[in-house]
Amino acid sequence: MDFAGKIALVTGGASGIGREVARQLSAAGAAVAVADINIEGAEAVAAELVATGAKAIAIALDVADADQVNAGVARTCHELGGLHILVHSAGIGVERGFLETSEEEWRRIINVDLTGTFLCGQAAAREMVKGGYGRIVNIASTAAFRGGTGRAAYGAAKGGVVTLTRVMAVELAPHGVTVNALAPGAIDTELVAKMHSTKTRQVYTRAIPEDRYGTPAEVASAALYLASEAARYVTGHIMSVDGGFLAAGLMLDKD
Ligand code: NAI
Asked: Could you read off the pLDDT of 232-244 as tens digits, one per residue?
């Protein structure tokens, strides 16, 4: 895939899936703004890309803060010359039972994972419609579709991301902007290292037909497809990248 001449903003770009998306987009020719609340991490990734000869900048922002998001989009447009692609990967998670989830925790997860998707998508789309072109890729989760234990706030937020993605796709189609989402399953990242207990990992792996967790690179390559010219007629789609987890029911031959 060729992204020469394209300008991309990747939120959550300091770590995990977002970092790998930034690397792959950059290697394919895009100029990349690496945005994250962890500015040291974002700067390290941007420096890594610049060291390969690519164009990249780091942006400090909290995706749940409208002013910071708007300023980050404005800086991307100003310093890189526009905005064609948003891959919104910033997110947080927690494994907490429904009965134990506090109101504060509920609001924190909804604020970052759902409101953050709204704010980043809206700010980016307002720029994209000016040029009549855009690609937005949100990151939902298989937790949007399956009622797994410990995912009340996280699953509800990701369910909201799925519906928001579809509404955005419909409203932005006349403006040349496609909007899709990925639904990753279990992917080995810093987030999962914090969120999944040893027991979760064992039970989860048993439920995955491919019998393993995925890698950030495997999710990033799906994001690049949705951000590419090849996907120009794909919009409002939720693509699972989950080793078959959502497809699975009974697996009699599996341990
Ligand atoms: P990660 O923890 O490795 O990376 C997330 C990044 O988002 C971090 O760099 C973090 O600093 C940043 N971030 C967190 N809150 C932020 C905020 N308020 N503003 C700006 N940046 C913020 O996590 P990972 O696994 O790469 O997750 C990326 C996305 O993929 C998240 O939306 C997550 O929910 C989703 N996802 C991950 C799965 C997995 O198994 N790893 C499965 C399904 C979805």
From this structure: 999 999 999 999 9
Cβ 87 under 6 angstroms from ligand 1? no
Q: What DSSP string describes 160-210?
A: HHHHHHHHHHHHHGGGTEEEEEEEE-SB-SHHHHHH--HHHHHHHHHT-TT
Burial call 73-94: b when 16+ CB within 10 Å, e when fewer:
bebbbeebebbbbbbbbbbbbb
Q: Which CATH architecture has domain 7-185+216-237?
A: 3-Layer(aba) Sandwich (3.40)
| Identified catalytic residue from 154, 204, 225, 233 | 154
Residue 213 annotated in active site: no
From residue 12, give the alpha-carbon distance in Å to each of 136, 190, 194, 217: 14, 12, 16, 15
**pLDDT per position as a tens digit, 7-60:** 999 999 999 999 999 999 999 999 999 999 999 999 999 999 999 999 999 999
Distance 81 CA to ligand 1 centre (A): 27
